[in-house]
Amino acid sequence: MIASVVIVGAVLVTALCWKAFQLSKAPHDHALRAVTLCLACATVAFPFGIPVTARAFDAVTLPSAAKLVQNVLLLSTVYCLMCFYLYSATDSDRGRRRARWELIPLSVTIVVITLLAVLTPNHATGHVYASADMRVTHVALFYLVAGLYLSYALASAFAWTLRYARASVRPLATGLWLAAGAMAGMVLSSAAREAFILVRWLGGDVPRPLSRSVALLLALSIPVFVIGVTYPGIATRLAAFRVWWQHRRNYHRLRPLWLLLHKAYPQDALGRVPTNPWRDALRVRSVHRSHYRRVIECRDGLVRISPYLARLGLADAAPHSVPPEELAEKLRLALRVYDPDDQSAQKAIPVAVPDGDGLDADVRQLVALSDALRAT
Fold first, then answer.
1. What is the pTM of this model?
2. Closest of 117, 7, 109, 1 to residue 58, by C-alpha
3. Distance from chain centroid for Cα 194
4. Phi first, then psi: what are they for 207, rounded to 5°?
5. Do residues 328 and 368 make contact, with C-beta atoms less than 8 angstroms apart?
């Protein structure tokens, strides 16, 4: 039990921090703001559902205050979730108007459950859903009203999620399908709880295994929903990290080739605006910038030295047929005979020609040549 509480709490806090970071970069994004507020309400509501925390809060406030605060925050959570789809599906003006209209049923629900909590007899306070005496009308209505709004908001969000999931591609589609599955579980568990409330209000008993199954479904749906909401961003960041790591490796692997060519043609070094070296070292973009600069400088150097490689017999060879090891050996020889004062007409030849289109194919050829230089 403790482990599950820690895991769910960690997932909620991590997701909230991630969305807050994204919101700091795009503070005017209404949809992102709605998701962030949704996670914020869920994160704040989570401790009030823990018995120890709820009892401590009730001890310093009023009986059942923790239950009321938790339900208000959960209702606000699903309202913010609806707002996310309203902002995403329409323009900002229409989204704001719809969000304001949706505040009416939320406000009515919050007022009603607050009055019910205040009017609940003292002997029926300090309870949770599982142990509440549903034969007390105020208690039953409290859970019934809150549950009805919860079911309405979740069903609306579930329908929007399905629509977006069918029209999306990975990784967004994967996250949406996870969120849709989680919301389907929430809607199902909420509907079951409404039925259980009516049965208990009428004096009946709900089988304990059935009640526990519904509670487990709800408990599992919450972290799955959070994972679904955050999955597209995490997947995108992981993909960006793989590119960053690849560029960093290529930058260092190109060093042998770059050192040889830079020594011969220092004037080919690309200039840039000076910046703080410590701050630049911590920036992700600095790795990509350094990588592309080194690739361009290596390619420029090979173009300059190519006439000397032609004199060593590479002019008659097919550009793709020269192995990197042979090219590395001839490159060292060409750099030895290179004369910076030689003004004779010289024609460049293709060197280390990539076997495909795109910059990545070009980089692979340069890295292979640099690896061959390192080995010889």
1. 0.68
2. 117
3. 34
4. -55, 135
5. no
pLDDT per position as a tens digit, 171-202: 878 888 888 898 899 889 888 888 888 888 88
Instruction: Dihedral sign for Cα 11, 67, 71, 181, please.
Output: positive
Report the Cα 16 to chain-centroid distance in Å: 11
Question: What is the number of other CB atoms lying within 10 angstroms of the CB of residue 327?
Answer: 22
To 5 degrees, how large is the angle CA 358–CA 360–CA 364?
A: 125
How far from the centroid of its chain's Cα atoms is residue 132's Cα?
A: 39
Total residues belonging to the chain: 376
CA distance 246 to 240: 10
Report pLDDT digits (tens) over 20-75. 888 888 888 888 888 888 889 988 888 887 778 877 887 777 777 888 888 899 89
pLDDT digits (tens, 9 = 90+) for 257-314: 999 888 888 877 776 544 555 555 556 678 888 888 998 988 888 888 888 888 777 7
